[in-house]
Every structure is written in structure tokens, then in C-alpha cells.
Amino acid sequence: MPTYRDEAVILRTHKLGEADRIVTMLSRRHGKVRAVAKGVRRTSSKFGSRLEPFMVADVQLYEGRSLDIVQQAESLGAYGTDIAAHYDRFTAANAMVETADRLSDAEATPEQYLLLVGGLRALSRGEHAPRSILDSYLLRVMSLSGWAPSLEDCARCGAPGPHSVFVAQLGGLVCHADAPAGSPRIAEKTLTLLRALIRGDWDLIDAAPHADTAAASGLVAAYAQWHLERGIRSLAHVSSTPGEGAR
């Protein structure tokens, strides 16, 4: 059975037996991988701390029948400590890795990996408000997965905008004729912020008032929850209040 090496983000872990763990990771070239890390729960383990959630590692794996086996792990990005020290970063990171776990499989693209690494790095450094980093990640990773929200033309009939009604269940903006009765209108500044989040225009995002970011976050959460069907459980713990990364 072959051995292979790859870069990977640790998404989650589960205890196995007395000293082992099952590690779920999103790798750069092999998509989502589940592997057994033997002995990592022992204090003498050489790489146990490198296989914790939010960490980025260079891993060597032995291909097994159902689960691969971790043979080596070298740290590439030790983001876990800085993220775990701040509640708003921690909850945002949990929502991000849960989404990555739900959206990725063995065919996941390098872009999905790089997007998650970039988001976790930004969270660990406090570069922007944690909720804004999460919102941008959700919109961009869903776009990579083929679920980009329509922010210009009508998601239902394709009629060119501008439109002012956003309906998560229909795919984004919809024209007046396709909008369900009683659908609330979206403010133009909120729509502008959604477009900035999906582009990664951080100058505009960081300068936005809290009321606008909160409105945009509500729409992003509704859109992500609807299209992921079972929802993102971690989102329930994410605060919409600006954190230490907000400008």
C-alpha cells in the first residue's frame, strides 16, 4: 500500500481506543482525508499537538483500506492557540471547519484548501472582525462548490438587476415578479457589503458600520444554512458583535 505526503488543515478529531485518534483533514491535493494517528494522546507523542483542529501540517500518510495512517506530521501553521484564546475567533473557526467538512470530499479542490487556510490565518492574527472573516469564507467556499448566490440578476428568471429582494431559498436576489409575498427588501448598502465579502474587499468590509455587517451576516447565515440542508451547528454560537479584529 502506497505512502503519500500532503499539506492539510485539521478539521476535527475523535478518540479511538486508549491512545489513538481519528483525524479528519482537508488536504491540498487529496481532498478530505480520514486517518488514524496512533499514540497521539500519550504525553510522549511527537506530533500530537500538530494534529489538533485549526492546525496546518505537512503530513505523511500510509494508505489503508478504510482509514489511512498518519506516519509523520510537521507544523506549517500553528493557528490553534491564537484562535482558541479568543471566543469570537474560536466560534468562527469552528463554523468554518464544520462547513469545510460538510462541503468537501475526496475530490475537493486546492482552492478550497487554500481558502480555509487563509481564513484561519486571518483569524489567528486578528486581521479583521471574526464574523466578517467567517461571512466572507462562507460566501466564497459556497461559490467554489457551485452555490454562488446571485447578487446581480434574478436568481429565478435571470432578469437583469438591480433587484432589492434577497431570498435564500431561491438563490439570492430575485425580481419583484418572483419574490414571495411579504419578502423584506435588502438595503443597497447591505448588498454592496455582500458583494465586498464575496470579493474579499477588506477596505470596504472593515469600514462598514455594525448595523450593515449584522444585516449582511444574517443573510449569509440564512443562505448557508438553507443550502447545506442540515445547517451549520456552530453558527448558533457565533456572535454578530464586532470582535478585536474589527476596525
Automatic annotation (TrEMBL):
Keywords: DNA damage, DNA recombination, DNA repair. Transmembrane segments: none annotated. One of its GO terms (biological process) is DNA recombination. It comes from the Bacteria. HAMAP family: RecO. Belongs to the RecO family. This is DNA repair protein RecO. It comes from Microbacterium paraoxydans. The gene is recO.
